[in-house]
Amino acid sequence: MAVKLSNSALSHAKQLIKSGKVVRDERDDWSEAAPTADEENRFIEKHGFAEYAKWHLGVDDSKPDDTKGRYSFPYGDFTKVRRGGVISLESRAAQNDHDDIAKASRTLLDQIDKK
Question: Which of 7, 24, 55, 97 has most Cβ atoms within 10 angstroms of its Cβ?
């Protein structure tokens, strides 16, 4: 799997945080707040894969643009950045040697926790 950091998704997340569109929850809250497969599908139907991609820090260029499998490491619920989601993705990224994604998520956490 050739997952790399999506700089456009990182920029999107930073802008959302800067705009105050963030929920300062805990890691355990992410399991309840993470979008379900049905919610993801509805979001894609309404907004398309380009918008869906903005909510994921990981992208696998070896997979087709119009598949959910191309995008990984979600950080929000399609309306706000979720601190719990960022914490969760940082841990998963570090465990799977995606150092660039783990580092980016730490940057997001710092930005969230500053406010």
Answer: 55
